[in-house]
Specification:
Layout: H1 14-50, H2 58-61, E1 62-69, E2 74-80, H3 85-93, E3 95-97, E4 103-105, H4 110-114, H5 127-148
Antiparallel strand pairs: 1-2, 3-4
Helix pairs in contact: 1-5
Length: 149
């Protein structure tokens, strides 16, 4: 084994590099939470302007949840408070079924018809879906900027 050279090296500062990576991860998580929450609040604000108002207080029941993390990813819930879910779904879809199975199509009442169009959509059915469509480009741009930067 004579004549064989042994190489060795040391990594200095590896601990500080790992600490900085942890800090960056926390900063990105915080910015992602803030961005998702801001975007969800924008969608809900638009949904409130598009929600029908003939009965009940659907606008007040539209809510934004908290940012949640799973193994699959990060998400935020938007929709209605649980106590009005059944009513909200009927209003969103624009129809309901009677106990006999008959389909009843809802038509916007006077109060809903008096609301102005918003973002190219008329208030009434599909209020949440239309609010999401209105903001789809903004959502994709904001999240792309965040994840690229």
């Amino acid at each position: 084994m004579a004549g064989r050279k042994i190489f060795s090296f040391e990594l200095e500062g590896l601990g500080s590099i790992l600490n900085r990576l942890d800090e960056l991860e926390k900063e990105i998580d915080q910015r992602l939470d803030e961005t998702l929450t801001r975007l969800a609040l924008k969608v809900i604000a638009d949904a409130k302007r598009l929600a029908p108002i003939d009965e009940g207080d659907l606008e007040a029941a539209l809510i934004v949840g908290e940012v949640k993390r799973t193994i699959a990813g990060i998400y935020i819930d938007i929709g209605t408070s649980p106590e009005v879910d059944d009513y909200a779904v009927v209003q969103h879809e624009g129809f309901r079924k009677t106990k006999a199975g008959k389909l009843v199509v809802l038509t916007p009442g006077e109060k809903t018809r008096s609301k102005p169009a918003h973002g190219g959509y008329m208030p009434g059915k599909k209020y949440l879906e239309n609010a999401l469509k209105m903001n789809e480009k903004l959502i994709l741009e904001e999240l792309s900027k965040l994840l690229e930067g």
